[in-house]
Amino acid sequence: MDILIGGFLLGGTYALMALGLQLQYGVARIMNLANGEMLVAGAFGAFWFYSGFQMRPFLAIVLIVPLAFVVNWAIYHYLLTPLVRRAKSRGQLEVDGILATFGMSFILVGLMLAVFGGEYFSYSYLERAVFVLEQPYGLNRIAAFCASLVFCIALVVWLSHTRSGLALRAVAVNPTAAGLVAIKVARTSAIAFAIGGAVTASGGALLSMFLTFDASIGVIFTLKALIIVILGGVGEIRGTVAAAFLLGLAETAVASLVDPGLTLAAAYLLFIVVLLVRPRGLFGSRS
Amino acid sequence: MKRIFQTIGIGALSIAAAFFTLGQPQAAEVIKIGAVAPKTGPLAGGSAVTHWPNLKLWVSQVNARGGLKLKSGPAMIELIQYDDRTNPGETIKAVQRLATQDKVDFIIAPYGTGLNLAAAPIFAKYGYPQISVTAITDKVPELTKRYPGLFFMLGNTTAFTESLADILKKLVADGKIGNRIAMVNVADAFGIELANAARPVFKAAGLEIVYDKSYPLGTQDLSPVVKGAKAANPDAFIAWSYPPDTFGLTAQAKIIGLNVKAFYTAVATAFPVYAGKFGGAIEGVLGAGGINPDAAQMMAYRKAHKEITGKDADFWASAVVYASLQILEQSIEAVGSKDRGAVTAFIKANSFNTVIGSVKFNNQNNDKFWTVGQWQNGVFHGVSSTGRPGAKIVKLKSGW
């Protein structure tokens, strides 16, 4: 039972890391390798608000979300739209996107280094024990899990039950056909990228409550998010949610029952097995 | 019309340039010193606390008093910095560039064991003395024999594990704790080496390792590790950890209630941000390193560090990095020239008065260093060393 609860909490953490990338890759077709840096930027933002203004992270998110939305929209509009326009195929756009965002990640690391310095940042917020079924868990992790649930449910509901969400899914499935039914593909992609970035940044802000960050640590989060997005299936938000929780449960189970040193091995093993059996990911559709 | 403007413009610029160069005072002699260390990459967090601020502090202090005193007159230090991105290949390239293109007179040793060892051959090739500080390895004897210009200051792996084992053994002998040890390590070269060195040492000291696990670098959830350790009912918890996991393990120990009387995390326990994050809960936490904060020179150094760099020094390697710079400074001034061979010979043969006390290299190795420190009343005091005075008595930890 302890493993289940711990696994769900970790799954919530992973979902926060991966949801943004899902929107950016699934809809806007940009494999954003700077995703981890955006997460770290959100974490730095929350740290800055907390240590400078004693603002609680949940309040800081209210400021971080619109800021991240605008910044990501600008990145898509000025940096990535030229790539989209000249890409002759989806594959070429993916390659161009990877290269461009890879370079962008270095720029973001440099900016954060210049503004915040290279040291580790960490603060204590809600670092109390809460007992669930007589086992102690960090209150900050539980709070992040609840927020993550809110994000997951909101995104799934929005994408499957609203008109704008339907437009996003249409662009994810087939951009050309979506254009033919009067969906503004360019605008929809930009909005998806921007929302993805905002979700990632707020995820970072929530994770900063219990993880330690420095300017260079983004790459670890990008790698994890990549696995989760591909495991769940590209273009399907439910897949990402499912993969995040599956990975969280698997890693916690391995850490508690077998050996904590094997968590990474278990995660990648799961990744390989799923891809061998279902190459398109858990929820991915045949393209 | 256009030509007239052009001529006037060029004329004005030339006159301005002439005034500018004529108006400069005669430039003092310059001594070029190169430095390469991580500013980005996995070790950047550590070097930003321990390495770079000390370079800034030292250069500004030396230049403020007129520069290094050479026989030919005072020479201001020009510091040339490179970021090696925690990549040994980049460290080597940067050292090469400093030696051949920038033609620096001296190069400050890199940060981190792996990067120092990778750069040792090229330091030796160009004849630069390498006073490495943040390099901890058991291979010191072989390396100092192979590279006559390589110096070590912070100790070796075995000494760190033996000091800790001695502390635990004494606590057990005094009846203050039982002998059950839970030991975890980060699955990176550093953690693995220390854990491997620790196992036989702990066994020989009569300690029983009841939980012995590793975890990958960058693990986001350390609660299974700490819960597993707690379930084994240990008397002491030892973690050979790196900065992110040092914080994570401490946080989890607090939340899960791992109330051992001896709690040790390795790297970053001595960082100011550790105290900043956990506040009073860290009272009694043991960690790698330590200083003697009551020594007058140390107090002055910490004050100057805060004033000039705006950051607090850490409680372990910061002072030793600064001491290595003092040694370089005193050697260059004693020799009176930029002759690297003479300076290296001087470092080998003499003793130096530094912020960590007197330092004399024994076969290019400083064998007097702090191994274990403990947070006592908001200061990370050294509690065990291989010959530095001022050790405080080890206290027991009582809850969080």
Topology diagram in text:
The complex is a heterodimer of chains A (287) and B (400).
Chain A: H1 2-26, H2 35-53, H3 57-86, H4 90-116, E1 129-132, E2 135-138, H5 139-161, H6 163-173, H7 175-180, H8 185-207, H9 218-232, H10 237-257, H11 263-277
Antiparallel strand pairs in A: 1-2
Helix pairs in contact in A: 1-5, 1-8, 1-9, 1-10, 2-3, 2-4, 2-8, 2-9, 3-4, 3-8, 5-6, 5-8, 9-10, 10-11
Chain B: H1 2-23, E1 29-37, H2 44-50, H3 52-64, E2 68-70, E3 73-83, H4 88-100, E4 106-108, H5 113-125, E5 130-132, H6 140-146, E6 150-152, H7 157-173, E7 180-186, H8 189-204, E8 208-215, H9 223-231, E9 236-240, H10 243-256, E10 262-265, H11 272-278, E11 286-288, H12 296-309, H13 317-335, H14 340-349, E12 351-354, E13 357-360, E14 370-376, E15 379-385
Parallel strand pairs in B: 1-3, 1-4, 5-6, 7-8, 7-9, 9-10, 10-11
Antiparallel strand pairs in B: 2-3, 11-14, 12-13, 14-15
Helix pairs in contact in B: 3-12, 3-13, 4-5, 7-8, 9-10, 13-14
For the structure shown, list the relevant keywords.
heterodimer; A: 287 residues; mainly alpha; ABC transporter involved in vitamin B12 uptake, BtuC; 2 strands; 3% strand; B: alpha/beta; Rossmann fold; 2 domains; 15 strands
Characterization of the model:
The complex is a heterodimer of chains A (287) and B (400). Chain A is mainly alpha-helical and 287 residues long. Chain A contains 11 helices and 2 strands, in the order ααααββααααααα. Chain A has helices spanning 2-26, 35-53, 57-86, 90-116, 139-161, 163-173, 175-180, 185-207, 218-232, 237-257, 263-277; strands at 129-132, 135-138. Chain A has a two-stranded antiparallel ribbon with strand order 1-2. Chain A is globular. The mean pLDDT of chain A is 90. By secondary structure, chain B is α/β, with parallel strands linked by helices. Chain B contains 14 helices and 15 strands. Chain B has a 7-stranded mixed sheet, sandwiched between helices.
